[in-house]
Amino acid sequence: MTDSSISDSLDHKLNLRNLVASDYSDLKKIMDVLYPDMGGAWPENKFLKQLAAFPKGQICIEDNGIVVAAAFSLSVDYE
Length: 79
Description:
3 helices, alpha+beta, three-stranded antiparallel beta sheet
């Protein structure tokens, strides 16, 4: 491996943004690995409902166009 190929493999293009419905396949891969004892990823319909209920609270980090991390939030009305 040359110095150039090492640096090329370390080039990250990180972007923080809100999740969108088309992110589900990337999220599923992550959640299936991280939460195998909890059944893996949420079903797609549950993800879409969460996204519809509070879209601004669902965020991700993508690296070179691939979702690599996500955070889910709830909006709670105590009234």
